[in-house]
Amino acid sequence: MTITDVQADVRRAYRGGFSGPLISAIVWAVANTIYLLVSPGAAMAALFFGGMLIFPLSAVILKTMPGRSSLPKGHASSALAMQSAFTVPVGLLVAIALGTYEPVLFFPASLLIVGAHYFVFVTLYGTKTFALLGGALVVLGAIGMYFVPAIGAVSGWIGGAVFLAFTPFLFGKAQGDWARQ
After folding, report:
1. Per residue in 51-108, pLDDT tens?
2. How many other CB atoms are there within 10 angstroms of residue 29's CB atom?
3. Would you call 82 exposed, middle or buried from its count of C-beta atoms within 10 A (0-12, 13-18, 19+)?
4. What is the Cα–Cα distance from 169 to 42, expressed in whole angstroms?
5. Global pTM?
6. Whole-angstrom distance, CA of residue 48 vs CA of residue 21
7. Does the record bear Membrane in its keywords (predicted)?
8. pLDDT digit string (tens) for 9-64?
């Protein structure tokens, strides 16, 4: 099995990865709403724990669709997917520590961390769209961290909009792959 075959399996099983950004858009929007209506600390908890629900909720969406909705046991990409997933909660602990001292920097720092995590998906899925998504999140996070910190209080919503904007492109790119299941 070649890397191209392995990547096609990942695209087929996860429908191009569209459901993760779709659920992420919701989680980020909810967390930013909590930031403004409840407290920054509650928003940090919402993004941290809500982020842990992204993959399981994505799996629920995939199970409602025809075809296989997960990789077979022992698949060559399973370890890479897991390793990539575990970087986010660890990174978010750093963003939470920063946000404890300066709450407006929590979402921008989180965008940097999550954006960097998406670069691995270029190899995992064989889809360059993830480089664009990761890059957009990293740039947005850097702008909020270093150039326009005032957008920090709404950068969760902006990040959510970025996730949502990429969802149809990821879904569309994978249609040919998962239609062949």
Report:
1. 999 999 999 999 998 877 788 788 888 888 888 888 999 999 999 999 999 999 999 9
2. 17
3. exposed
4. 32
5. 0.93
6. 15
7. yes
8. 899 889 999 999 999 999 999 999 999 999 999 999 999 999 999 999 999 999 99
